[in-house]
Task: structure prediction
Amino acid sequence: MSEPKVLTERRGATFVVSINRPEVRNCVDGETAGLLFEAVQTFKADDSLNVMILTGSGTQAFCSGADLKNIQTLNSRPGSRESGPMGISRITDVSKPAIAAVNGYCTAGGLELACWCDFRIASRDAQFGVLNRRWGVPLIDGGTQRLPRIVGLANALYLIDTGILINAQHALRMGLVQEVVPEGKALDRALEIAAALSGYPQQAMRNDRRAAIEGTILPEPEGLKFEMEVHRTSVTDPLMAEWLAKYARGERPAPLRPPD
Result:
């Protein structure tokens, strides 16, 4: 019996979701997209899970995009119009952080999946690009919307127009990835970050996240009002008073730091 095309694993309060088709560089067909959708729904519904990590099995690829040999299965999947051909790109109501742990190729629809996450941790051998440009396949899993928000319009159009393949350091300079770590260590670092996030009081962090994401489309005055409204529940959260008391007692956890 073959392994599932998407693997899920609970590590404490972290939910690791791995695209598991290493023999085809973790490209996504309709079945894989459906399993990714189910994994995100599980993460959303489970209050014991605080952070999701999206990654790819093996060392060769995070995800190389859609399975072009079976591309018809993406749009024929029930619910694809609502959730996106790749399974999750049109899901916008996740209230908890998601991290992409990128090793190897992160291209085409795979890049769009990585951009769906809050931020990206890349191994030194990671490569990024809109390689579907060569085949006339469009970005319809959020790439035209999320890339400009992440890297700015000029950088996004540089990637989108040219179909260029860039390495992890170039992606770091561009702001596409937030950390570059040694080969094979992207998932380990993402797990370390996820554990730190789970250790924070959740209400304020999730509300900050919501205000930042939803506020990007608002004029600044409206965004400031939205920020205040979102945080009405944060300032009354009993955990905030509890943690401030810890601070007063000198119980101050060390801040998370980037890798050397």
In short: Residues 201-248 form one domain.
